[in-house]
Structure to design on (222 residues):
């Protein structure tokens, strides 16, 4: 699935000339933790998130903020002062946010969210904001995902399982063998750890047509 298949196209957004107070109310009213900031042409300028707001002067005294920023260069301290005190969204937002193309894969989205510890990514077409993809959208994709179709009955199931053993599962190089009878999968091999045994079972369970798993692992846990 691609980003365009799951992204939200009804976007809650704000203008850089909105006040921070207005933006905070919009976020609360719509139960979102961040909003994209766009200009009159629909071009994405930045994102205003809860993270940008929790250091506001309304919440943190200027004295405390100043102490924390004393080690920063003068330009960085000036920028921090503007972001925490200005009434304009355009000053308080995070500019040039991470974005993604609508044709990108969901695997790419999940990787970026994990690496950057973020909850949502604006979707752009050129410079134009066309959607938002969030962690909730990825969860929805899991719900509608279908198991891979496997043809060929028991033989097809067996081939599919053996092929997947080598696909970055932690089972690569293990001496595993598989037979399938009426959809019941039998797995033999010298598997030393509980984690690898679990991976072998989960891998087999994910193949379409499997009705049950029988393990014949001979080695004890190390």
């Amino acid at each position: 699935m691609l980003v365009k298949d799951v992204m939200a196209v009804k976007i809650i957004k704000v203008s850089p000339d909105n006040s921070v107070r207005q933006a905070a109310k919009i976020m609360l009213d719509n139960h979102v933790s961040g909003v994209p900031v766009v200009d009159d042409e629909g071009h994405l300028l930045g994102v205003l998130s809860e993270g940008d707001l929790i250091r506001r002067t309304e919440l943190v005294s200027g004295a405390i903020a100043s102490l924390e920023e004393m080690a920063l260069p003068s330009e960085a301290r000036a920028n921090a002062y503007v972001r925490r005190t200005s009434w304009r969204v355009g000053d308080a937002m995070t500019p040039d946010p991470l974005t993604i193309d609508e044709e990108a894969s969901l695997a790419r989205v999940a990787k970026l969210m994990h690496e950057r510890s973020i909850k949502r990514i604006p979707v752009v077409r050129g410079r134009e904001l066309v959607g938002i993809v969030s962690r909730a959208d990825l969860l929805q994709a899991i719900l509608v995902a279908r198991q891979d179709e496997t043809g060929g009955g028991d033989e097809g199931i067996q081939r599919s399982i053996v092929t997947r053993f080598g696909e970055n599962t932690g089972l690569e190089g293990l001496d595993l063998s598989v037979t399938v009878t009426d959809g019941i999968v039998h797995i033999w091999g010298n598997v030393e750890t509980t984690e690898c045994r679990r991976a072998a079972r989960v891998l087999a369970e994910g193949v379409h047509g499997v009705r049950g798993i029988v393990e014949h692992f001979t080695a004890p846990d190390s």
User: Anything to note?
Assistant: The mean pLDDT is 86. DSSP finds ten helices and nine strands in the chain.
